[in-house]
Design a protein that fits this description.
heterotrimer; A mainly alpha (369); B mainly alpha (305); C alpha/beta (256); A: 369 residues; mainly alpha; two-stranded antiparallel ribbon; 13 helices; B: 305 residues; ABC transporter involved in vitamin B12 uptake, BtuC; two-stranded antiparallel sheet; 11 helices; 73% helix
């Protein structure tokens, strides 16, 4: 009996090792495969997918772990992006190095998260949703209008010619040559984003299984009982807002450097909604699910964008329907269909999946309270 | 002084429209605890349908076109509202709480882009349906159209209140929002009640859509989004789930916005201009909720242990 | 006589016009099992909520170990050593039984974000200790066999026990139990009684709200009776049982 368990443990460990190695190799060669098979536009999409994974994991701490429905999350992405844009562009003539800006962006976004979180602590679920949504809009509207009387954000035109990410004199804007191998710019960004995504995944996993992570989930499950367990719910909630926001700040800074241009349009409510969809559609609170959600919702609209026109052309010989509208239509449809067939998300944690199957009766009772 | 009154009048018009839309949000929320994210798009569809009916009937007298446009818009919206609930929300009634929120967002995206496919991405000028005659009150002007908007909105709100307070359907709706399982035990058909709620809310949305397009003489496939957001804000401001709260919140929000837009420049010494109008709604909302976390006249839910 | 652990002095709490508590004073001594009984709506649970910081009292003060207890901060009450269970069980439904108890260790442990992410040696030691203590407590209340099941899947009796284990995890000096025997059958109540006596035996003072009069009278050292927000009697069970005011309050009830 004992031997069998040990044995299966060993095979478990070995298969885990093999899986990790396989994923590692896959991630390492992905940009070359995607780049040569699908071209540079898909490589950019791959880079964006990594940015969105970072965002989704950040929001997952707030919504998935702590159960706080934040619909203005994109504001922290904006804080990170604008900090980079202001400190490393001709706009103010500043060119602060990236290794200062990105951490500063994380800190500033974290502070913003705590500041915006503080007034909302007493609010219940849906009230919280609308207030955070309001905060998100306020941040965007200020960015849109802070070009007069003093020009800070350059208003709706946004800030352009932002310095590309540049580390120790090596710029990622041009192909890199490392030990005789030339790495194109998009590939280099991929590896940088991948490294930071892995870091964020690591932090998320560690936090989930910690004293703080348990406190978050406890608040999500029952705030009053959490208080009775000695949890200072105010501080722990603020910590969730801060941590989640700081991930967003990092992603925002990377976005600004990658894109070379930021404008308020990139941070509208639809973007917040999109990140929320990634978290919920993937499987709230379950890190692999959230990552899957991030990838799916980045790739799916792009796939529709690339196929909506050509497929019509092939089928009807001409473009009957506006491809842009058609692609969003299909995307909306996909959201609805996925949620209808997998209400707990595409990849919920095993515990929660079991929950949903067995738990519907008690949920109904709960509603009636 | 006359600017002040003028802004109050403009605010009242805008607020009546917000109130009608807010009622739709609050009714659905009261009964199902769901933010019907797609409600703003229903308003947009109402506006679009009304616009095209009025255009098609151009030349006929207004007392023919207006009722027909209203009927067509309300009919289409009611069908849309009914369908949304059946397809996107009903199957998820026992699902985790955020699942229907995501389908609501999906439906919103679908409706928006469907509208874009049908009516194009351009702005449509809304034809004047009433003669543009101005009336003076207290040194400010009010158009016939604005009077009609306020009167119709007031009638609809009164009608809805009567429906909810005095009819069998209304009583069933109140019972359902209080406690669905118990209402069911008392013989209320919850599915019917929820459908009715969506249909009524959508009819109000259709009227609001026509009003807002007529008021600003414009309709656009994207117009429902911000309007819906504002109306939802209004509903929360008043206390979501509460009909009187939605009406109060809507009208207050309209007045605050229009006063804000009129005076923000003076208040901030020219630092912030009237393009900050949209911020007002949110600042007011946040301010109110910090002091009254359940809205102005929302239910006070004490933390029960 | 044992020293006073909790002194409640003229506690008042109103809801609108209703005086849920109208100047209630109690003295609970270390090591006691103290019963709080009274008809429905007498203000027992309200007193619990004031005691544990969920409600802000409208008057009066609480002294715990001789020091004033800051009002309406439940986590501070817990840190000071007051733990509670709830009348309508409040567990973290989607966490396992073990995790529920681990959450109870929150107030007595320190690891923050950095410790959690870096897993320093101290954090690892702390986590191991949390885990060990939680397992011990599950064992102690008798639900160790359900450790890895979600709390919401536990049977009613096990949920009650789990809630007690979670409360004990906070290392309380005073454990306040709100109707722990509600819905239990005779056997379950009997083993609950053994459990509570064991807890007292470990030096923890117990404050008990209970409807099961047999349990209260058999278990408690002293009993206070609330009626309409007023304490009408406080004494040893044998005397309380014979008090005419108490019989009056329960007229038609089960005490007489």
């Amino acid at each position: 009996m004992m031997a069998i368990t040990l044995d299966s443990l060993r095979t478990d460990k070995r298969s885990a090792l093999i899986a990790t190695a396989a994923i590692g190799i896959l991630l390492a060669v992905a940009p070359f495969v995607v780049g040569s098979a699908l071209g540079n536009s898909w490589l950019r999409i791959l880079d964006f997918a990594l940015l969105y994974i970072m965002l989704a994991l950040g929001l997952n701490i707030v919504v998935g772990f702590a159960g706080l429905l934040d619909m203005g999350y994109i504001a922290f992405y904006a804080v990170g992006a604008y900090l980079y844009a202001l400190l490393a562009s001709p706009h103010f003539g500043l060119h602060v190095p990236v290794w200062i800006i990105i951490p500063a962006g994380a800190v500033l976004a974290g502070v913003a998260g705590a500041l915006l979180g503080a007034p909302t602590l007493r609010l219940r679920g849906d009230y919280l949703a609308i207030v955070t949504l309001g905060f998100g809009e306020i941040v965007r509207i200020f960015m849109n209008n802070l070009n007069a009387p003093v020009n800070i954000t350059n208003g709706p035109q946004g800030i352009s010619s932002i310095d590309p990410i540049n580390m120790g004199g090596i710029t990622l804007a041009k192909p890199l040559t490392v030990m005789g191998v030339t790495i194109p710019s998009l590939h280099a960004y991929y590896y940088l984003f991948l490294a930071l995504t892995l870091l964020i995944v690591f932090v998320s996993i560690r936090l989930e299984d910690s004293r703080i992570g348990r406190a978050w989930v406890a608040i999500r499950e029952d705030e009053i009982a959490a208080k009775a367990c000695g949890i200072n719910t105010r501080n722990i909630k603020l910590l969730a807002f801060t941590m989640g926001a700081s991930f967003g700040g990092v992603a925002g800074g990377l976005f600004a450097g990658f894109q070379g241009f930021v404008s308020p349009e990139s941070f509208n409510l639809m973007e917040s909604v999109m990140v929320l969809c990634m978290v919920v559609l993937g499987g709230m609170g379950h890190i692999p699910g959230v990552i899957l959600g991030g990838v799916m919702l980045t790739v799916l609209p792009e796939f529709f964008r690339h196929s909506a026109g050509p497929i019509q052309q092939a089928l009807f010989g001409k473009i009957l329907l506006d491809p842009e509208a058609l692609r969003m239509l299909l995307f909306g449809l996909a959201l609805v269909v996925v949620m209808l067939y997998r209400p707990a998300g595409l990849w919920p944690s095993t515990i929660r999946r079991r929950e949903f199957r067995n738990g519907s009766a008690s949920d109904v009772l709960k509603e009636g309270e | 002084m006359d600017i002040f009154i003028q802004q109050i009048i403009n605010g009242l018009v805008l607020g009546s429209i917000y109130a009608l839309v807010a009622l739709g949000y609050t009714m659905v929320y009261g009964i199902m605890g769901l933010i019907n994210f797609a409600h703003g798009e229903v308003v947009m569809i109402g506006a679009m349908v009304a616009l095209f009916v009025i255009k098609a009937l151009a030349g006929l007298p207004v007392f023919v076109t207006l009722p027909l446009a209203l009927a067509a818009a309300a009919g289409v919206c009611m069908a849309v509202g009914f369908t949304i609930e059946r397809v996107a929300y009903r199957p998820l009634r026992r699902a985790p709480k955020l699942a229907p929120l995501i389908t609501a967002i999906g439906v919103s995206i679908i409706l928006q882009n469907l509208a874009m496919l049908i009516w194009g991405r351009n702005y449509h000028a809304f034809p004047p349906i009433l003669p543009t005659s101005d009336h003076e009150i207290f040194g400010a002007t009010i158009t016939s159209l604005q009077i009609v908007i306020i009167v119709i909105a007031a009638l609809m709100m009164a009608g809805l209140t009567l429906l909810v307070q005095r009819t069998r359907l209304g009583r069933a709706m109140r019972a359902t929002s209080e406690n669905p399982p118990i209402a069911q035990l008392m013989g209320v058909n919850i599915n019917q009640i929820i459908s009715a709620t969506f249909v009524i809310g959508s009819a109000l949305a259709a009227v609001a859509g026509l009003m807002v397009s007529a008021n600003y003489s414009i309709a656009h496939y994207y117009m429902g989004f911000m309007l819906g957001l504002k109306a939802f804000t209004a509903a929360v401001l008043g206390g979501i789930g509460n009909l009187a709260g939605a009406m109060l919140g809507g009208i207050l929000l309209g007045i605050i916005e229009s006063l804000g837009a009129g005076y923000i420049g003076d208040l901030t010494g020219g630092f912030l201009g009237s393009h900050y109008q949209d911020i007002f709604a949110f600042f007011v909302l946040i301010g109110v909720l910090i002091f009254r976390p359940s809205g102005l006249i929302g239910e006070r839910i004490a933390e029960r242990a | 006589m044992k020293p006073v652990l909790l002194l409640a002095n003229a506690i008042a709490k109103h809801f609108g016009g209703v005086k849920a508590l109208n100047g209630v004073s109690l003295t609970i001594r270390e090591g006691e099992i103290y019963g709080l009984i009274g008809p429905n709506g007498a203000g027992k649970t309200t007193f619990f909520n004031v005691l544990t910081g969920l409600y802000h009292p409208d008057g009066g003060e609480l002294l715990f170990e001789g020091h004033k207890l800051r009002a309406s901060t439940p986590h501070v009450a817990t840190q000071r050593g007051i733990a509670r269970t709830f009348q309508n069980i409040r567990l973290f439904g989607n966490m396992t039984a073990l995790e529920n108890v681990m959450v109870g260790r929150h107030a007595r442990t320190r690891a923050g974000v950095f410790g959690g992410v870096l897993r320093t040696r101290r954090t690892r030691a702390e986590e191991a200790a949390i885990h060990r203590r939680a397992e011990e407590l599950l064992h102690y209340v008798g639900v160790a066999h359900r450790a890895d099941d979600l709390a919401k899947h536990l049977s009613y009796g096990d949920q009650r026990r789990l809630e007690i284990a979670r409360a004990l995890a906070t290392e309380p000096k005073l454990l306040a139990l709100d109707e722990p025997a509600a819905g239990m059958n005779g056997t379950e109540t009997e083993s609950l009684r053994t459990l509570i006596e064991g807890i007292r035996g470990d030096g923890i003072t117990v404050l008990l709200i209970e409807h099961d009069v047999k349990l209260v009278m058999g278990l408690c050292d002293r009993v206070a009776v609330l009626d309409y927000g007023v304490k009408i009697c406080e004494d040893v069970p044998a005397i309380v049982q014979k008090d005419p005011k108490v019989i009056e309050a329960y007229l038609g009830g089960s005490v007489a």
